[in-house]
Structures are given as structure tokens and as C-alpha cells.
Specification:
This protein has 755 residues and is an alpha+beta fold. Among the domains are: 90 residues, Alpha-Beta Plaits, CATH 3.30.70; 89 residues, Calcium-transporting ATPase, cytoplasmic transduction domain A; 139 residues, Rossmann fold (3-Layer(aba) Sandwich); 123 residues, Calcium-transporting ATPase, cytoplasmic domain N (3-Layer(aba) Sandwich). The strands form four sheets. Strands 5, 6, 7, 8, 9, 10, 11 and 12 form an eight-stranded antiparallel sheet that branches. A seven-stranded mixed sheet has the order 13-25-24-23-14-21-22, with helices on both faces. Strands 15-20-19-18-17-16 form a six-stranded antiparallel sheet.
Length: 755
């Protein structure tokens, strides 16, 4: 169907409906993309289709999000259009992550590893013969035989992609590779078969099989490394999806329990949550109480008490209690589903790292082709008796010397060395895009818990009043039986103290206040100050003053009393990492603005900000608010690095220009993030940014030398010096110059290791 027919169909559909187009969003999988140029081509085809308002290709996830008129455009229409450009579309289930995408990625990675290994086996002997044994018998035919599978089997995708892109007026690195290696190969084949053609004219028939084969091998290796980095996207989404249980216990109207699929749950259903279970949907507690670990969303290590009237969220984990709740938001309406959607959208909004290089290649290739043709024409017209012969030689030399080996290596060589240097420093860099972007970072946003602080509540203070070791052992036994999350910190602290075991009887948990029990005929309680007063216990002034001081420092206070009075107070604190103040100070010295986000309360946030020298902070934020905070900073023109360690940080990490996860945090955060600090040492964050600045400087130097080589080499190859010297550039020298340019790029990149 022609474009005109498509447009007529859209117009008819609009007139028949008598209303505006029904626009909707849908996401489809894209197959057969190999580079950013392919993504641009798919986006151009779909975006230009009648009835499509907008198309956004996510090259990392191999998907395309399309806004289209559902009354005028169907999936089959889009698929046919994309297939005509040499690619393909898959219909995805938008409610679940497609396992098919991950399988496709795995198969593609396996195929690329196969291509690199076998291309290397064939290319290595070609290189050795071409460099050191050119005079051996049958050298040229042997290199011809060995290099042919490298180009047209293991590297065939470069030629296929170049043809696809040429049909749509696009030129990328695939075009450069195909043009350069193809020219070198065909020229070498001609010289192998018809060497006498040059000998009769007093010239030597040179071959360049080794250059063609080695270039293909290098570019295949770069593509393999790129594909490995892109594969992290699916793992992050799968882990987020795994937070929701597949089955739930639904309470029927007659009070009976039934295990049903989470897909069958509807708003208004009554659900039962047992101890240790994950909560399946968002809702409101109506019966029972328990502590729920909400670190998925808040990032805070202390579980929250849930009782009648409290809201619960899908993906959070119940503690030791049990309760019933009414489902309010299900399916795509839950906060967990929204976090997943935000991660996907934020990842899709990022530009591929090779976009600039592909734009340069799009100009470079036509220019080189024009120069080569003009060279042939000029020699034919003004070259005298041997003008055509010398013109053919000069044209081939131009194409050989313009081979994009140095240009193709300029970025990946520096990135490979930079990533290796980062690994030596304890910074795992999964995403070359972020390695390049990090140099432009001017704002660093830090999550508090687990990033600036240790993320582990500890008892940091104990003050007693007429309290013996015997009493502390009673407190230990009380806390051993408590389900409150802070009780574990108290148990760990008191376990280290010597003393005999005490038997506590009649243990009772007082929800929201603390615990109590009987030992030796006396009643003892542990919990908050309100519980002490309700029990009528006398509060010594010294303990009250110390508790107030601790609370000023945003610490949590646990009170312990019995025998008519408060006997002790303990402070529980999530300590600052030793490296945090120094790291934040270093970031500020580098000219970076440091911000802190936390789900904790205002007093704690203020105290942490004061102790670390942070000027910008926000307390009480949820995951979507963190992502919005990062988004707002970006909209103001800042380049933002987000540093976090929890699942609750994943949306903000995906939204940021550069995402950095602390290595001892949640797996999802590390999967979403493009950099991981193995040791969780915050000092590695400014170190990673410095590494990025050095790497980008190296890339710029590499690109400069690659282009200078071409700017000087191409005119010389075309013969601009012939009127002055009487000699044309020997193609062998052109091949050597090309190899030298590649070596200079690699050596310059290796300097990163030594700096």
C-alpha cells in the first residue's frame, strides 16, 4: 500500500468517525537493530507513517513507543512499514515483561561471541602473512581465502546494514566499515587475479586483505562489548516485576479463604496477608496489625506499623503479624507498576552514545566518495597518457586511506580502557553512555540511607540509673521476644555484654508502644516514653535530659523501666559512613552541587545534612517524588548524577543522566544503575566523575588525530603533491598510515591506565 493510499485511508477514517483522532500509546519490540543509526532509521519510518503522532525508539531495550490514531493505524500496518526497511516489530504484552526479548538478546550475544572468536581465528594468520610474509609462495591467494569468511560471513551484517541504511538515505558506522573493508577487499582481489595489469604499467600489485579482516574483527569486538552493556535493562525490569507475588489469599463473603492469581484481584476484594508474605496490591488495612518492610519505596531500614486504617503498597514485605486489607489499586494502578513504568520511560528517553559519531560518519562517507570520484575524473582529464590508470590507483588509495579504523576505534578504545581503570578502582561501569556523560555532571543527588549512612540501625548510646547487669539481661530477653525491627539492634548490642540469662514470663507486645513482661515477680517494660508514663514509672531528670539531647540529633530513643522507675535509655542510630563527609566535601571542591533525598523525617534529614555539609535536601519523599526531583533538576538544564542503593531509588536512578548504585544495596538498584561502587565507599563517586573527565578528554584526542589523519592523508592520496614531487602515494604506504593511525589511537587510550 502506497503512502498516498495510507493517507486516504486515514482521512476516510477521520471523516467517518466525525471526531478527532483517537490517540493512544503502545510499546512494541524491534528486531534486527544493530546500531544507533538503525534506531534512527526505525524511528524515521514509524514517525513518518500516516496516523502516527510520535515515535521514540529505545535502542537499549530494543523497543519503540508509538503514539498513534488507533482508528487509522494497526499493528500490522506499522510492522509492514518497518519490515520494508529491513527490520521487524513484535507485539508486547504491556502488563508483563516479555521473556521473548530476553531470549532474543541472549541469542544475539551468543552469536556475536561466536563471530568474534571465529573471525579472530581467520584474521590472525591473514595479519601475520600480510605484515611479515608477503613474499611467501601463494601469499595473496591464501590471504584471499582466509579473509573472505571474515568479511562475508562473520562480518556480513555490516554490508547488510549498510545497504538497508543506504536505501533510506542514512549513513552510519556500518556504512564506513562496509565501504572501507569492501574497497580494500575488491581492490585486493583484482590485484590478485590481474597482477599483470599493474606490472605492464610499471607498478606493483599490492593487496590489503589483512587491513579488511582486522578492521572487521575490531569492530565486531566493539559491538560485542556494547551488547553486553545493553543487556542489563531487562534484568532490572524482571526484578521489579518479581516483587509482586503471583498468588494471593482472597477472603470470600462467607469468610472462607481461596488462593487466587493476582490477576484475578479486583478493587474492593478482601485479602489476607500472612507473616513473611509480600503484599500483592495497594490497599487499606481493615483488621489486624503488623510491621511492614516498606524499604522498597521509602528506602528506610525500619519497618512501619500497619493497623486498621493504614495504607499498604504492593511489593512491600509483611513482618511477623497477620492482617486483612481491602484492595484499592490493582494491576497497572499500583505504585509498584508505576515505578516499573517510570524506569522504562526514563531509560527510553536517553540518547545513544554513538549518535554524534554516526552523524559525523553520515557526512564523512559521502564526502570521501565524492573525493574519490573527483580524483578519478581529475586524473582522467589531466593525467596524460596514464591518466585513467593513475586515477584508478589514486581513487583506490583515497578509499583505503579513508578506511574508518581509527575513527571506529577512537571512542570504544578509550571507553574500554576507562572501564578497566574503573574496575581497578572498585567502580563497575556497565554503561558507556554514562561514562561519557559523567564529565558534564554538575549536580549529584544522594539517597540518605545506605548511601550517606550505613543503612543498619545500631545502638549508639546507653545511660542507666540504678540499673544493674541483671536488669539489662531482663531487657535483652524482652527484646528477644519483640517483633519490632529496632529490637534486633538492642539484642545485638546487649548480647555482647556478659551476664546470666533471665527468664521473662507473661510477655506481651503493646502495639505501637513497646513490650512488657514479668521477671522475678516484677513487671518490666521497654518502648517509648508514653508507655513509661502510662505504667506510672518515675523518669529521672538525667535520663530525660539525655533522651532529649539524643532526639535533637535525630536518634531514636528506647526507654526501659521497672520496679517503679525508668532504669535506662538507649539511642538507636543509622550511622554516617566514615567516607561520607570527606566525599561530599571533595564533590563540592570539584564544583558539584550536592543534594540529599530521604524518606526519613525532617529532623533526621536536617541533622545528616548539617553533619555532612549538604546545603540542599528534601525529607519524606517517595520513589516517584525522587524521580520528579531529578527530572526537575534536568529540566532546569543540569546534568544530574543520582546515587542510591535501594529499590526505591530505581526510578530516580533511571531518570538521572548518570546513575550510580552502592554495591551493598538492592540488586534492582544495581541493575538499573550504569555504575556500581563495589565497596559502597562514597569517595568513589568523585573518583568516577574524574575518570569520566579523563576518558572524554582521551576520546576527543583520539577523534582529533583520526580526523587530522584523514584531512591530511586523503588529499595526499588523491595526488595533490604529485605536481611537486612527481610521485603518487603508494597504496601500501596508505595502508601503513591507516594502521599507524589505529595504533596511535590505542596507545593514547592506554595512557588512561597510567594516569
Amino acid at each position: 500500500m502506497s503512502q498516498k493510499e495510507n493517507q486516504n485511508r486515514v482521512d476516510r477514517a477521520a471523516s467517518q468517525s466525525g471526531s478527532e483522532a483517537r490517540l493512544e500509546w503502545a510499546t512494541f519490540g524491534v528486531q534486527k537493530m544493530t546500531c544507533a543509526g538503525c534506531a534512527a532509521g526505525v524511528e524515521k519510518v514509524i514517525g513518518g507513517f500516516p496516523g502516527v503522532e510520535k515515535a521514540n525508539v529505545n535502542f537499549a531495550a530494543h523497543t519503540v513507543s508509538v503514539e498513534f490514531d488507533s482508528g487509522a493505524v494497526t499493528f500490522d500496518d506499522l510492522r509492514n512499514a518497518v519490515r520494508s526497511a529491513g527490520y521487524d516489530l513484535d507485539a508486547l504484552d504491556n502488563d508483563e515483561y516479555s521473556d521473548e526479548q530476553e531470549d532474543n538478546h541472549r541469542r544475539k550475544l551468543t552469536r556475536q561471541i561466536y563471530n568474534v572468536l571465529f573471525a579472530g581465528l581467520f584474521a590472525l594468520p591473514v595479519f601475520v602473512i600480510g605484515m611479515f610474509y608477503m613474499e611467501m609462495p601463494y601469499a595473496d591467494p591464501v590471504m584471499w581465502v582466509l579473509s573472505t569468511p571474515v568479511l562475508f560471513w562473520f562480518g556480513r551484517m555490516f554490508f547488510v546494514n549498510a545497504w538497508r541504511q543506504a536505501r533510506h538515505g542514512v549513513a552510519t558506522m556500518d556504512t564506513l566499515v562496509a565501504l572501507g573493508t569492501g574497497t580494500a577487499y575488491l581492490f585486493s582481489v583484482f590485484n590478485t587475479l590481474f597482477a599483470d595489469f599493474w606490472h605492464a604499467r610499471g607498478m606493483h600489485a599490492h593487496v590489503y586483505f589483512e587491513a579488511a579482516a582486522v578492521i572487521i574483527l575490531f569492530v565486531l569486538l566493539g559491538r560485542l562489548l556494547e551488547e553486553r552493556a545493553k543487556g542489563k535493562t531487562s534484568a532490572a525490569i524482571r526484578r521489579l516485576m518479581g516483587l509482586q507475588p503471583r498468588e494471593v489469599t482472597r477472603v470470600a463473603a462467607d469468610g472462607t479463604y481461596h488462593r487466587v492469581s493476582v490477576k484475578e484481584v479486583r478493587s474492593g476484594d478482601m485479602l489476607l496477608v500472612k507473616p513473611g508474605e509480600k503484599i500483592a496490591v495497594d490497599g487499606e488495612v481493615v483488621e489486624g496489625s503488623s510491621y511492614v518492610d516498606e524499604s522498597t519505596f521509602t528506602g528506610e531500614p525500619v519497618p512501619v506499623l500497619k493497623s486498621s486504617g493504614s495504607n499498604v503498597l504492593a511489593g512491600t514485605v509483611n513482618g511477623k503479624g497477620s492482617f486483612r486489607f481491602v484492595a484499592r489499586q490493582v494491576g497497572a494502578e499500583t505504585m509498584l507498576a508505576q515505578v516499573i513504568q517510570m524506569v522504562q520511560e526514563a531509560q527510553g528517553s536517553k540518547a545513544p552514545v554513538q549518535k554524534l559519531v554516526d552523524k559525523i560518519a553520515g557526512v564523512f562517507v559521502p564526502v570521501v566518495m565524492v573525493i574519490a570520484v573527483l580524483t578519478l575524473i581529475a586524473w582522467t582529464l589531466w593525467g596524460g597518457d596514464h591518466g585513467i590508470t593513475m586515477g584508478l590507483m589514486a581513487m583506490a588509495t583515497v578509499l583505503v586511506i579513508a578506511c574508518p579504523c581509527a575513527l571506529g576505534l577512537a571512542t570504544p578504545a578509550a571507553i574500554m580502557v576507562g572501564i578497566g581503570k574503573g574496575a581497578d578502582m572498585g567502580v563497575l561501569i556497565k554503561d558507556a553512555i554514562s561514562l561519557e556523560l559523567a564529565r558534564r555532571v554538575d549536580v549529584v543527588v544522594l539517597d540518605k540511607t545506605g548511601t550517606i549512612t550505613e543503612g543498619k540501625p545500631e545502638v549508639t548510646g546507653l545511660l542507666t540509673e540504678k540499673c544493674s547487669d541483671h536488669h539489662l539481661q531482663i531487657l535483652l530477653q524482652l527484646e528477644r521476644q519483640s517483633e519490632h525491627p529496632l529490637a534486633a539492634a538492642v539484642v545485638q548490642y546487649l548480647d555482647a555484654r556478659k551476664g546470666g540469662g533471665e527468664v521473662v514470663e507473661a510477655f506481651e507486645s503493646i502495639t505501637g508502644h513497646g513490650v512488657k513482661g514479668t521477671a522475678g515477680g516484677e513487671e518490666y517494660v521497654a518502648g517509648n516514653l508514653r508507655l513509661m508514663k502510662e505504667q506510672g514509672l518515675m523518669v529521672p531528670l538525667v535520663l530525660e535530659q539525655q533522651a532529649a539531647a539524643w532526639e535533637q540529633d535525630a536518634r531514636t530513643v528506647i526507654w526501659f523501666g521497672g520496679e517503679g522507675a525508668v532504669l535506662a535509655v538507649l539511642s538507636v542510630e543509622d550511622k554516617l559512613k566514615e567516607s561520607s563527609p570527606e566525599a561530599i566535601s571533595e564533590m563540592k571542591r570539584m564544583g558539584l552541587s550536592v543534594h540529599m533525598l530521604t524518606g526519613d523525617h525532617e529532623a533526621t534529614a536536617q541533622a545528616i545534612a548539617h553533619n555532612t555539609g549538604i546545603n540542599h535536601y528534601r525529607a519524606g519523599v517517595l520513589p516517584d517524588q525522587k524521580a520528579d526531583y531529578v527530572k526537575n533538576l534536568r529540566e532546569k538544564g543540569h546534568t544530574v548524577a543520582m546515587v542510591g542503593d535501594g529499590i526505591n531509588d530505581s526510578a530516580a536512578l533511571a531518570e538521572a543522566d548518570v546513575s550510580i548504585a552502592m554495591g551493598k544495596g538492592a540488586d534492582v538498584a544495581m541493575d538499573v544503575a550504569s555504575m556500581t561502587i563495589v565497596s559502597s565507599d562514597l569517595n568513589k563517586v568523585p573518583a568516577a566523575i574524574r575518570l569520566s573527565r579523563k576518558t572524554v578528554a582521551t576520546i576527543r584526542q583520539n577523534l582529533f588525530w583520526a580526523f587530522i589523519y584523514n584531512v591530511i592523508g586523503i588529499p595526499v592520496a588523491a595526488g595533490v603533491l604529485y605536481p611537486f614531487t612527481g610521485h603518487l602515494l603508494n597504496p601500501m604506504i596508505a595502508g601503513a598510515a591507516m594502521a599507524l593511525s589505529s595504533i596511535s589511537v590505542v596507545m593514547n587510550s592506554l595512557r588512561l591506565k597510567w594516569n
